[in-house]
From TrEMBL:
Pathway: Isoprenoid biosynthesis; isopentenyl diphosphate biosynthesis via DXP pathway; isopentenyl diphosphate from 1-deoxy-D-xylulose 5-phosphate: step 5/6. It comes from Glycomyces terrestris. Residues 16-256 form the IspG TIM-barrel domain. The keyword Iron applies. Signal peptide: none annotated. Binds 1 [4Fe-4S] cluster. This is 4-hydroxy-3-methylbut-2-en-1-yl diphosphate synthase (flavodoxin).
């Protein structure tokens, strides 16, 4: 059992319908899942499965693959079968690939109402095929490809326009008695995005997939996503998330997981509480924190480890953590579960912390 920092969520989760996406429950109080999308050509089955394996190892729970060509559609069967996590096929323009994805055993299909004009006539057929196979559909509205009709009506991709587009598409499926739907209304501006999801959440009880689209390179995209998801998740809105970064997809998953951990929506894994350092620091905190983080990476237990530069806040934080060091005068006081267990020279701080962390992990039952 971990040290006493269990946390109450910020707000009760909004009750949504529940979907089963290839064994991962989405909505209806299920844990919020983290998604990403492969960047390989889907038709390159080996490379795609390799990337999915990397994503799985990083903690991705659902993966989406693009399906722009027949070769990609042909690859879906093997990918869906061999992937360790549920695979969602991402379809624009071509209704025939929706059927291919359902036949291939994909866990869900994402369609974009702005890009599927010809879909509207075929919604009945799609709904029937999806229902027979038990395949949920994500209606993924994107500001960059908003339905022309709504773009004309609203002048631009406003929150109202995004929501109207999504609910219009959902109503077409509802006419065919199909409700295994989740919805996203993505925009690159976190403010518009947050407003759109709030509005959508008031108007339907479908599970919502959160995303800031085209969020940008890693630093900017991380901040935009964290700010927007933080606002929504703290109001109980959002059932599954995807961070979009112009960076390798494993980075998206790390950021997504960290956002959920930060908000107390997922059990925290390894957490390094390190001080920002200041003029009082008696040790190089940055290097120490980096070395401890690197040394503990992959430890499969939730541990809070405090790395503090001096004796002002050091002992307090170190005592609160599972494990910690308060440095000073070329030495480090090592704390375990609130007690100083020994004082070591500065050069031994990192190895002592790692040793103690491994011992604690063993006690906590890690393999
Ligand atoms: Fe500065 Fe000490 Fe606080 Fe670190 S713990 S920020 S060194 S006062």
């Amino acid at each position: 059992k971990r040290h006493d920092h269990e946390i109450e969520p910020l707000a009760p989760r909004k009750q949504t319908r529940q979907l089963n996406v290839g064994g991962v429950l989405v909505g209806g109080g299920a844990p919020i899942s983290v998604q990403s999308m492969t960047t390989t050509r889907t038709s390159d089955i080996g490379a795609t499965l390799q990337q999915i394996a990397e994503l799985t190892a990083t903690g991705c729970q659902i993966v989406r693959v693009a399906c722009p060509t027949q070769d990609d559609a042909d690859a879906l069967k093997v990918i869906a079968k061999q992937s360790q996590i549920p695979v969602i096929a991402d379809i624009h323009f071509q209704p025939k690939y929706v059927f291919a994805a359902i036949d291939a055993g994909c866990a869900a299909v994402r369609v974009n109402p702005g890009n599927i004009k010809q879909f509207d006539d075929r919604v009945g057929e799609i709904a029937r095929a999806a229902k027979d196979a038990g395949t949920p559909i994500r209606i993924g509205v994107n500001a960059g490809s908003l339905d022309k009709r709504l773009l004309q009506k609203y002048g631009k991709a406003t929150p109202e326009a995004l929501v109207e587009s999504a609910l219009w598409e959902a109503s077409l499926f509802e006419e065919h008695d199909f409700r295994d739907i989740k919805i996203s209304v993505k925009h690159n501006d976190p403010v518009v995005m947050v407003k759109a999801y709030r509005l959508l959440s008031e108007q339907c009880d479908y599970p919502l997939h959160l995303g800031v689209t085209e969020a940008g390179p890693a630093f900017q995209g991380t901040i935009k996503s964290a700010a927007a998801f933080g606002a929504l998740l703290s109001e109980g809105i959002g059932d599954t998330i995807r961070v979009s970064l112009s960076a390798p997809p494993v980075e998206e998953v790390k950021v997504g997981n960290q956002i959920l951990e930060s908000l107390g929506l997922r059990e925290r894994g390894l957490e390094i509480v390190s001080c920002p350092s200041c003029g009082r620091a008696q040790v190089d905190v940055y290097t120490l924190a980096e070395q401890v983080t690197a040394g503990l990476e992959g430890l499969p237990v939730p541990l809070r480890v405090a790395v503090m530069g001096c004796v002002v806040n050091g002992p307090g934080e170190a005592r609160e953590a599972d494990l910690g060091v308060a440095s000073g005068n070329g030495k480090g006081q090592i704390f375990v579960k609130g007690e100083v267990i020994r004082t070591v020279p500065e050069s031994q701080i990192v190895e002592t912390l790692i040793e103690e962390a491994v011992r604690l992990a063993e006690e906590m039952g890690a393999e």
